[in-house]
Write a structure and sequence with these properties.
By secondary structure, this protein is α+β, with helices and mostly antiparallel strands. The chain has one domain. Helices cover 27% and strands 32% of the residues. An eight-stranded antiparallel beta sheet has the order 3-6-2-7-8-9-1-10. A two-stranded antiparallel sheet has the order 4-5. Helix 1 runs antiparallel to helix 3.
Length: 156
């Protein structure tokens, strides 16, 4: 299955955010959040992470995740099983994709296909997101999220 990378041109807000989360949930088995410098995150961030602990698979120290590559020291990446309860929490906690950010919430929400490849990657503080789609999925994306523009990332 060949996928192409597409930039998501604007912050998915409101209904677009909800539909994006639903779109990703249908195609994913896991999702992640990153905490690059845990001391920057406030009580509300840690309370939110605690509320998801029944869906937590692992916390891994990583140098890389979709949209980010570190050079000095690893960050804590929280890996979650995609479940209906987790998706409900993601849809109700914020109203836009880029609200997942320091200090109140974990950052860089990403979704992964069952084979481990990234479906959605974000960098909340840099305000960008991308999605990796097959041709069929691109058609489905355009149908399910008609107001959310994407553009193919050119090859290097």
């Amino acid at each position: 299955m060949t996928c192409d990378m597409y930039w998501i041109y604007r912050d998915p807000v409101g209904e677009d955010y909800t539909r994006l989360i639903e779109f990703c949930a249908k195609r994913s088995s896991k999702c992640t959040f990153a905490l690059q410098q845990p001391q920057q995150f406030g009580r509300s961030c840690h309370q939110f992470l605690d509320s998801l602990k029944e869906h937590l698979v692992e916390v891994a120290n990583q140098m890389e995740w979709p949209g980010t590559r570190l050079t000095l020291s690893p960050a804590a990446v929280y890996w979650y099983r995609v479940t209906p309860e987790l998706i409900a929490a993601l849809k109700t906690k914020v109203r836009s994709l880029y609200e997942w950010a320091v200090p109140d919430l974990p950052e860089d929400l990403a979704f992964y296909r069952p084979d481990g490849r990234a479906l959605l990657g974000t960098s909340s503080h840099e305000r960008f997101a991308f999605i990796n789609l097959t041709e069929k999925e691109l058609d489905e994306f355009k149908h399910e999220l008609p107001d959310l523009s994407v553009g193919k990332v050119p090859l290097p």
